[in-house]
Amino acid sequence: MASSIPSLRSLSKFALGGAQLFLGSGSTVLGGTPKTCSTTGQLSCHNTTAVADLCCFNAPGGQLLQTQFWDTDPATGPSDSWTIHGLWPDHCDGTFDANCDTSRAYTGIGDILTSFGKTDVLTYMQTYWKDYQGNDESFWEHEWGKHGTCVSTYDTDCYTDYQAKEEAADFFERTVNLFKTLPSYTWLQAAGIVPSSTATYTAAAIQAALGKNRNGVEVTLGCSNGALNEIWYHYNVKGSVQTGEFVVAAPDGSKSTCPDTGIKYLPKSGSGGGSPTTTFVTGTKTSTSAPTSTGGAFSGKGYLNVSTGGAATGCLISAGTWYTSGTCATYTAATSGSGFTLSTSKGKCAVVSGAFTCGSSVSSATVFTASSGKLAANGSANFYADAVASGSTQETVYTSSHSTSLTITWQSV
């Protein structure tokens, strides 16, 4: 059922004027292939006659919106980048459909991407497609179920040799690839519009900074309590959303929620500090500093930071492995008896065959405890690895003796 759009954040759905943007696949395709479509056909929202083949012409959601967040409290994503909200198909009049096919409201988005060889997309999403409450998987599932299933070119009949759920993998890949062409932070920074606790900006200046890279075409700006927190980039499409050409378009309705003047652009907070070490990505920013190992209480949401020889170096990612060049996973600590259990977006965490493991294969979570602010398993705060994690190499974390000793502390987020 079509709906109007009263606000930005409340709905969680909710360009180069005339320029075209072609986005190739960029990843190995292990499933079938989308139907081949001509890009010389009619442009969505501009057709003068009915288009029968909705595998090559998205309708009724003919305008596509690449939507971005700037979350500051709590902060999500890198401190020098906006994050992905989604890719939404709007009618050409400012209304939209939602939850169009509940039979394809898939779960386990990370597993779907991995099964189709799109691990590079998943890795990128783990940094740049973040949920402000820490539930990334649930957020991704929501965006696909509510919006992705309403893109007609992602219908299963639009694939040859279709394999179950491959259209969802294509949706996330396309959204990521489009987002990479829209560096909002950099574009604003080039115009002197930078995060500040005191400065304010005008809507006209923000529009000009972004429009400079889009032949003057405006975007939709979203504000909360006078602070900029969303940008929507509007496009019409020639061909399918999977493989077609995105043509920058003006907003399909009056939706901006920012005032004309006095707009705040607040800095993100909650980034880690510490002594400089090898470059790694924390849950909130890309940094050349080690994460803060606070040794705080294991409760709620947080990161598991790793230290060797007293120096912080990297953190645990969602499968439970130690990494220095990836994204710190958000762990959930829940009280259990005299200790607590841990889980990530992949599933419960446990010590399995002597290794710290998180995932759907874990049927029974281990009850951990804290010892002098450090994570402890079976009463011991000593963990081990075969080597110090470095670069893109992940290291398994063990509870039995291996060549490298390490400790794990909690950083609340």
Description:
With 413 residues, this protein is an alpha+beta fold. Helix content is 14%, strand content 28%. The chain contains six helices and 23 strands. It has helices at residues 109-115, 119-128, 136-146, 166-180, 184-190, 203-211, and strands at residues 20-22, 33-34, 63-69, 83-90, 159-160, 200-201, 220-224, 227-238, 245-248, 263-264, 276-281, 286-289, 300-308, 311-316, 322-323, 331-336, 339-344, 347-352, 355-358, 369-371, 374-376, 383-385, 404-412. The strands form six sheets. Strands 13, 14, 15, 16, 17, 18, 19, 22 and 23 form a nine-stranded antiparallel beta sheet that branches. Strands 1, 3, 4, 7, 8 and 9 form a six-stranded antiparallel beta sheet that branches. The longest helix has 15 residues, at 166-180. Residues 1-18, 25-29 and 270-294 have low confidence and may be disordered. One of its GO terms (molecular function) is hydrolase activity.
Outline:
The chain is of the alpha+beta class. It has helices at residues 109-115, 119-128, 136-146, 166-180, 184-190, 203-211, and strands at 20-22, 33-34, 63-69, 83-90, 159-160, 200-201, 220-224, 227-238, 245-248, 263-264, 276-281, 286-289, 300-308, 311-316, 322-323, 331-336, 339-344, 347-352, 355-358, 369-371, 374-376, 383-385, 404-412. The longest helix is centred in the middle third of the chain and has 15 residues, at 166-180.
